């Protein structure tokens, strides 16, 4: 099966997200914090007169806080009719990737393992295929 994947970098790791789940890629000008929000929610931002909940992918994957120096890029996804922006270090490419995701056999940290759907191969390297809904849900401890 061939499917388009968006390839992005999070914490130095290149990952893939199904392009079907992606609405757009945007640069975020300002993030307004939300008091008492879960730790992986960076805040809110405006996107074409709509509210976008910004998810700190580093925090969602239990990697600390994402750096917010310079240009802030986000992958916009819709989950349960709500817009979310997943913060990424960089959007690398969009690629047609052939084959079903392979089962993960290697030990991953709990955050990556929770968000991963499997491995896909692109240009002779393995990429984690991430589920945006699991990133939005946050770390397992927050989701439980």
UniProtKB/TrEMBL annotation:
Annotated GO CC locations: cytosol
GO biological process terms on file: chemotaxis; signal transduction
UniProt-listed InterPro entries: CheW, CheW-like_dom_sf, CheW-lke_dom
SUPFAM superfamilies: CheW-like
Residue ranges of domain CheW-like in the record: 2-141
Domain of life: Bacteria
Cross-referenced PANTHER family: CHEMOTAXIS PROTEIN CHEW, CHEMOTAXIS SENSOR HISTIDINE KINASE-RELATED
Protein name, entry field: Chemotaxis protein CheW
């Amino acid at each position: 099966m061939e499917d388009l994947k968006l390839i992005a970098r999070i914490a130095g790791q290149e990952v893939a997200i199904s392009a079907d789940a992606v609405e757009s890629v945007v640069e975020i000008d300002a993030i307004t914090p939300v008091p008492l929000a879960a730790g992986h929610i960076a805040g809110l931002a405006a996107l074409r007169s709509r509210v976008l909940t910004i998810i700190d992918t580093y925090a969602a994957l239990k990697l600390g806080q994402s750096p917010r120096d310079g240009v802030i890029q986000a992958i916009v996804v819709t989950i349960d009719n709500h817009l979310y922006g997943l913060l990424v270090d960089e959007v690398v490419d969009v690629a047609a990737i052939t084959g079903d995701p392979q089962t993960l056999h290697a030990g991953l940290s709990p955050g990556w393992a929770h968000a991963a759907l499997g491995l896909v191969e692109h240009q002779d390297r393995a990429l984690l295929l991430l589920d945006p809904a699991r990133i939005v849900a946050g770390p397992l401890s927050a989701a439980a």
